Sequence to fold (262 residues):
Amino acid sequence: MPPSIIPAAVAATRGAACAAWAPFHVALGPYQLAVEFRDKSQMHDKRKLACLNLEDGRIELRQDLQGMKLAEVFLDCIIRLSHFSKGCQQGCVEEAYTHSFATGMVEFAQRNPMAWLWFNLLLTEHGGRNARYDRVVHGAVSRPPRMPKRILVGGHPVTIRSITKAETGNAFGWYHFSNREAQLYSGLTGSNLAVVALHEITHAVHHMYDIKQRDKHQNFKHAQLKGWLGIMKDNPSAWRWLVWVISFPAKASLAPAAPEAA
Ligand SMILES: [Zn+2]
Fold:
């Protein structure tokens, strides 16, 4: 079993009316926010399960959240903080929301290794597929996970294919709407591989959730939250690959690994 995802300080205060700090901050863009578990009566907005309280420098999570609901509410905070810190707001086009999500997730993971591990432990313990994402975050895998050829997005199959330089043209990747196919340049490496993979798959998420070129902020946020949480739950091998390329940019590559010397 993976280690407990509930820090001792938090577990000790479950049900009590005082706040408890998670043992990590979240740094994104210019912000560095404490993460606190709070009783409903202590939330900045008592109607909400989570508050992005930028004035007081903290993410407030309702103390009674657990399991996948806690993962969902936390991911929602990261998506909101990412768009806010990048100035992605209503009026921005679909491409801007796509890239804001992709770069925000990679930045979150790479600047916040404790929070990234905690989030993947939540998915491991409550996602129900015994996928051990925590081991991938630690690099404790016998071989790097492979890029998936097909994933389910919003219940629909989407293919993922690596393409040549000639097919790539002046971009790093494409999302082909009529084929429902995310295409990634085969020469992608480093953090750029993670960003481009998240970017093209996010186009697929927007497609499957019928998001328009110019849509409401709320609709982009909802599609990204539900779409990506669904990808994490329904496609454990795909999420393991993404966790790997996000966590280890120095090793990330689409090129097949060279055979080891005898
Ligand atoms: Zn794009």
User: Anything to note?
Assistant: The beta strands are 20-28, 31-38, 50-53, 58-62, 150-153, 156-163, 173-176, 181-185. The first strand starts at residue 20 and ends at 28. Residues 8-247 form one domain.
